């Protein structure tokens, strides 16, 4: 009775999976990529930050332009001012109006305005790089979750195969038991094997559902997506090429990857821009010892106190020169601080460059190793499947024991799992190398692997 209930549960499980697959259309990676970029809040935040940086650059540019302002004053006096003129007293108006136009233009500020503008320009570049990095991180996360769904789906299919195979073995064992060819203990081992396959199938279904949920949440969907199948190992020319790499070709690929990474790595680009910011900041601190020169002019319109709305104009032109003398301890300290901040950024940039190059070389070695593992696991699976078919037929003919068939069944499950794991490890290694190189287009990486013509 327990076995009948377990079988019913599996049937319902597979039926629900089939129904879900029928309701949900396959989601291609390009469609998932478009959804991820349009629905991700962090990506849109980086877009807004880039626009903010562009306006900051415009704000810094405005510092070079002249500043023109208009001001006005209304002065009311009670009692009114009285002025002695000859032998008489003249009483002025209670209210006075004054208008003033003032124009100022900085001429020299020790390079501070120029450096501030260049820093704002670098800020735009860094905002662009941050946006690219967010896109790269988002697409890497998407690819990881997309592959996780495909991998768990493949594992689910494998567990279904194992379950059907265990059912077939149990049917054979039932016939043999009825014929008195195997003992009850051997028969129970086949029942136990089927129960184990049931548990594995349920676990695979759970893992598949969780992977779907993770991808669904990333894409902000209201349904559980079914990704479109990726190319198999037999259909991947890049994989076949990597499987034939020797140590020399692997080293050459590592060199090409490092050369490309020096210009393509977003982490290195951000580090270089950060270093340039420190250089500009150091130059600003040096400019603190230099004078500042500004030109200012004004034209004032003022009532004479007698005739309302009759204004007299006066002009002023002023050249302001300011040279800091004391105290200079603060300026010198700020300059030395900027200098050592610059040195820190230089050392950090060199350390990052070394780390990125090492990481690229390791990623290339991991990719080639993963490709070769796919080939080895594929051959092992093919051999194990053929051997299992032979062993199953021999068991049917009573030529081997139950233990030998079950051991072979375990080897087949392990070989299937190894082949699945190795192929998806290869795809993940490919994605990891793309992220290190700052590549979002797989074709660019394929060209790099094949010949490096894209450099």
How much is the average pLDDT? 85
Listing every helix as H and every strand as E from the N terminus to the C terminus, the arrangement reads: HEHHEEEEHHEHHHEEHHH
Strand order of the largest sheet: 2-5-7-8
Which regions contain 5 or more consecutive residues with pLDDT less than 50? 1-24
How many extended strands?
Answer: 8
The backbone outline, from C-alpha atoms, is: elongated
- Tell me the major beta sheet: 4 strands, antiparallel
Structural class, by secondary structure, is alpha+beta
Into which percent range does the helicity of residues fall? 55-70%
Count, helices: 11
| C-alpha end-to-end distance | 67 Å
Classify the beta-strand content into a percent band: 5-15%
Radius of gyration, whole Å = 39 Å
Q: Which helices and strands occur, and which strands form pairs?
A:
Blueprint: H1 2-23, E1 26-27, H2 29-39, H3 41-61, E2 67-76, E3 82-85, E4 88-91, E5 95-108, H4 112-178, H5 184-219, E6 226-227, H6 237-243, H7 247-264, H8 266-286, E7 292-303, E8 311-322, H9 329-396, H10 402-437, H11 442-450
Parallel strand pairs: 1-6
Antiparallel strand pairs: 2-5, 3-4, 5-7, 7-8
């Amino acid at each position: 009775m327990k076995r009948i209930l377990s079988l019913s549960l599996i049937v319902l499980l597979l039926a629900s999976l089939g129904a879900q697959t029928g309701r949900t259309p396959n989601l291609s990676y390009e469609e998932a990529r478009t959804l991820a970029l349009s629905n991700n809040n962090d990506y849109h935040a980086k877009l807004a930050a880039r626009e903010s940086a562009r306006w900051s650059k415009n704000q810094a540019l405005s510092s070079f332009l002249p500043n023109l302002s208009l001001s006005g004053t209304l002065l009311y006096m009670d009692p009114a001012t009285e002025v002695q003129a000859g032998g008489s007293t003249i009483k002025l108006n209670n209210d006075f109006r004054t208008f003033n136009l003032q124009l100022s233009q900085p001429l020299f500020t020790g390079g501070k305005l120029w450096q501030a503008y260049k820093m704002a320009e670098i800020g735009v570049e860094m905002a662009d790089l941050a946006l690219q990095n967010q896109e790269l991180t988002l697409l890497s996360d998407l690819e990881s979750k997309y592959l996780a769904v495909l991998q768990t789906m493949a594992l689910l299919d494998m567990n279904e195969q194992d379950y059907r195979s265990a059912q077939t073995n149990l049917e054979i064992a039932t016939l043999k038991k009825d014929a008195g060819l195997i003992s009850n203990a051997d028969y129970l081992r086949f029942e136990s094997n089927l129960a184990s396959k049931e548990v594995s199938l349920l676990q695979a279904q759970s893992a598949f559902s969780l992977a779907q949920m993770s991808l669904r949440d990333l894409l902000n969907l209201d349904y559980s997506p079914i990704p479109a199948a990726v190319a198999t190992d037999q259909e991947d020319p890049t994989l076949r090429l990597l499987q034939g790499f020797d140590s020399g070709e692997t080293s050459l690929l590592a060199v090409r990857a490092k050369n490309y990474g020096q210009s393509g790595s977003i982490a290195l680009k951000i580090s270089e821009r950060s270093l340039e910011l420190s250089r500009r900041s150091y130059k600003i601190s040096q400019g603190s010892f230099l004078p500042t020169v500004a030109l200012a002019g004004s034209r004032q319109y003022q009532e004479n106190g007698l005739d309302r709305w009759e204004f007299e104009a006066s002009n002023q032109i002023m050249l302001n020169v300011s040279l800091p003398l004391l105290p200079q301890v603060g300026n010198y300290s700020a300059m030395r601080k900027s200098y050592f901040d610059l040195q820190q950024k230089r050392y950090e940039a060199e350390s990052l460059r070394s780390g990125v190059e090492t990481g690229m070389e390791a990623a290339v070695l991991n990719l080639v190793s993963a490709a070769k593992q796919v080939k080895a696991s594929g051959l092992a699976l093919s051999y194990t499947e053929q051997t299992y078919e032979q062993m199953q037929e021999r068991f049917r003919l009573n030529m081997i024991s139950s233990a030998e068939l079950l051991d072979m069944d375990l080897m087949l499950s392990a070989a299937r799992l190894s082949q699945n794991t190795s192929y998806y490890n290869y795809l993940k290694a490919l994605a990891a190398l793309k992220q290190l190189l700052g590549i979002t287009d797989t074709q660019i990486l394929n060209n790099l692997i094949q010949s490096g013509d894209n450099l």
